[in-house]
What does this fold into?
Amino acid sequence: MTEDGGAFAKLTLQELRRDNSKSSSDIKSFHHPISAKDFSQPDPAFTVFGHIEGILFMLTIYGVYRSRASRVYWMAEELGLEFRSVPVLQARRLAEPLSTDAPLNTHSPDFIAINPMAQIPSIRDGDLVMHESLAINLYLARRHGGPLSGQTVEEDGLLTMWTVWAAAEVEPHTVKIVLTYDNGLESSEGGQQTIAVSCRSLRRPLTVLENHLAGRQWIVGDRFTVADLNLAEVLRYAQSEEALFDAHPNIKAWIERCQSRPAYKAMQAARAKEPIEV
It folds into this structure.
């Protein structure tokens, strides 16, 4: 079953020029919900390039919400950033991703020009193009400062350490769990075995995190930071396994704190309006 939202904004060059003349406080964020019918081939001039005839765009996030791009959308909401969302689909979700009428996807030549690895998310921030969701969030935190970023060199190091730890020690196992559900295999013998092996593989890293969170609310310092956001998103892939979190009450309470934040709820609300099936 799909959920329909509002149409994705498509702007003409004249409208872009008009919006570019406004002050930053007048510009609205182009992160609109989309419906199944809105997964049509967008205008490449609007959706792909960061500059059109001298026009400099705000932060552009490439990727649908139902992907690792969710992390970047959450981060942008936390920072209160104006951004433009380009709903690039995963090519694996399409029968013929290279057909002429296929919606913009990770195998589309226009997107390959942005990210030759053919993966989402990517961002364009002025002249900077970046890939890899967790690295993008570290960049955005440092670029915009505030409580989500490191306040000292030591904190910067810890934010990076926990983010790399999440990618290396946790995500390889949690992603197997979520993909098992995404592929409808959770009830099959093979799917159940994959989930069981993944949960066993998570025992050591979750024990480390559980002990780290004893007596503290957040991963680094005394506040919510980019490390909490990055790690919470990596662990979200395993939240279908309730027993795993029940066995680690500190982690369970921590991720509930993370996911109770208004910015997370805003990201999830936009995500819920995207079609599950294309």
